[in-house]
From TrEMBL:
It comes from Corynebacterium mendelii. GO terms for molecular function: CoA-ligase activity. It holds the Pfam family AMP-binding. Residues 383-460 form the AMP-binding enzyme C-terminal domain. Keywords: Ligase. This is Acyl--CoA ligase. Residues 6-332 form the AMP-dependent synthetase/ligase domain. It comes from the Bacteria. Belongs to the ATP-dependent AMP-binding enzyme family. InterPro entries: AMP-bd_C, AMP-bd_C_sf, AMP-binding_CS, AMP-dep_synth/lig_dom, ANL_N_sf.
Length: 478
């Protein structure tokens, strides 16, 4: 998956315990032998249900070295969902880090009845090395089949684009069980021999790690940006780069983050089906803060009409299609979804509405399925959300699809007020603030208030949970 030299340079630190690259190499060899000794065989699926740390890195690399397939699973999921997922992917064994001290290996649990081996899924592609989960470009949770070449290629391409170095110390607190964490925060730094600070995320400790370890690179999701700007004491003088991914970063937030830390703030773009990175803002001069930059080296992109697949002119919105060494093998056990996502000539339809300028810089507009059609015009929830969130008195905001009395789609604002802001923001103040920055068709037509906007661990609005919370309440049409 990733080859590295067994040197005495620090590789991974967790809770004060540091493994050098030599230690990591030895531990991976030992763990791979142990996996084989349990009766597991090449091609078996091993679920990694673990938090960030040395143990996760060792297990991931050992599973690959033993010729098995790693399936990262979020340990925060309910037990019943984990069990269902393990059945779906045909996991022969699972490894959990619960209660395991830093630097020590967790136990391996065989899942077959009576200890008997579970055979791999019959539709598993023979080149599969990893089975991360994705919501899929059609919105249903699926296991994505990625090869070792997919992962290693993307890790190296991103490292080159972000100019990661052996001398870097990187803060890797976002979950390794998410494809962003696995490739960008773990495999990519390992590919250049950098030093990874691998800690499970703790809100009260995250920012301080940058000072403690004199970090040079940090990887975040948008919700973490405010932790930097709210911190008045930490020293960020060694920090040169902050990479934000997994969800769109508000340009105003990016500017505040740069002002506080002095580091360059760059966005990337990707999806699980592409291992995940396809784009990165390599140049602050060429890539405005609301863009995701250019395609990675060796990666092609095009903007296509979602209905016809024909390319659209630069500056026109369309679906972003990508093609390159990081594009998946397919979805496990779902050939129809694979065919819907991949063209016959290997293009991945991302499901994201985007615009590309003549210089090749890409700006993501929104998920195609989330775009609201108001009187024939397309309204991007992300654009409106960024403006609403900047209104004084608003802690967070989402924009969802509602319907007026005639059944026409309308943009509905869901607002989580800031309880510490006085006076509280009124609907009239919110509309006055937002309407002057939006075209008439983009303006919200109803407002709903809630205590918080549900978000995933990586900062994306959980629109399924939000819809369930709202029910039929889509506010009062204005």
């Amino acid at each position: 998956m990733i080859d590295f030299s067994p040197t005495d340079h620090p590789a991974i630190t967790e809770s004060g315990v540091t493994y050098t690259y030599r230690d990591l190499h030895r531990a991976v060899d030992d763990r791979a032998c142990h996996l084989r000794a349990t009766g597991l065989a090449a091609g078996d699926v091993v679920a990694l249900i673990a938090t960030n740390g040395i143990g996760f890195a060792v297990d991931l690399l050992a599973v690959h070295r033993a010729g098995m397939i790693a399936a990262p699973v979020n340990p925060a999921l309910p037990a019943a969902r984990i069990d269902d997922h393990l059945g779906y992917i045909g996991a022969a064994a699972s490894i959990t880090s619960a209660g395991t001290p830093a630097g020590q290996s967790a136990g391996i649990v065989l899942r077959g009845p009576g200890g008997r081996r579970i055979a791999p899924h019959p539709q598993l592609h023979p080149d599969t090395a990893c089975l991360p989960m994705s919501s899929g470009t059609t919105g249903t949770a699926k296991a994505v089949m990625l090869s070792a070449n997919n992962l290693a290629g993307d890790a190296r391409l991103f490292a080159a684009a972000a100019e990661l170095r052996r001398s870097d110390t990187v803060i890797s607190a976002l979950p390794f069980t998410h494809i962003y964490g696995l490739t960008v925060l773990l495999l990519s730094p390992l590919s250049v021999g950098a030093h990874i600070i691998a800690e499970p995320f703790h809100r009260e400790r995250f920012v301080g790690l940058h000072t403690t370890y004199e970090a040079t690179v940090s990887f975040i999701a948008p919700p973490l940006a405010d932790l930097f700007t709210a911190d008045a004491t930490s020293d960020f003088s060694s920090l040169r780069l902050i990479v934000s991914g997994a969800a769109a970063l508000n340009p105003a937030t990016a500017a505040a983050l740069h002002t506080r830390t002095g580091a360059r703030v760059a966005q990337g773009y990707g999806l699980t089906e592409a291992s995940p990175v396809t784009h990165f803002a390599r140049s602050a001069q060429l890539c405005p803060p609301d863009t995701v930059g250019h395609a990675l080296p060796g990666t092609c992109d095009r903007i296509a009409d979602p209905a016809t697949g024909e390319s659209v002119p630069d500056g026109s919105p369309g679906e972003l299609w990508v093609k390159g060494p990081q594009v998946m093998l397919g979805y496990l056990g779902d050939s129809s979804a694979t065919a819907a996502a991949l063209s016959d000539d290997g293009w991945l339809r991302t499901g994201d509405l985007a615009v590309k300028d003549p210089g090749g810089v890409v700006r993501i507009v929104d998920r195609i399925k989330d775009v609201i059609k108001y009187h024939g015009y397309s309204v991007s929830p992300v654009k409106v959300e960024q403006i609403l969130s900047a209104c004084p008195g608003v802690a967070d905001a989402a924009v969802v699809k509602g319907y007026d009395g005639e059944g026409e789609e309308i943009p509905v604002a869901v607002i989580a007020p800031d309880p510490e802001h006085h006076p509280p923001v009124t609907d009239d103040r919110l509309l006055s603030f937002s309407n002057r920055q939006l075209a008439h068709y983009e303006q919200v037509r109803a407002i709903v208030r809630t205590d918080r906007i549900p978000r995933t661990a990586t900062g994306k609005i959980d629109r399924t949970a939000l819809a369930a919370r709202l029910g039929n309440n889509t506010g009062t049409t204005r």
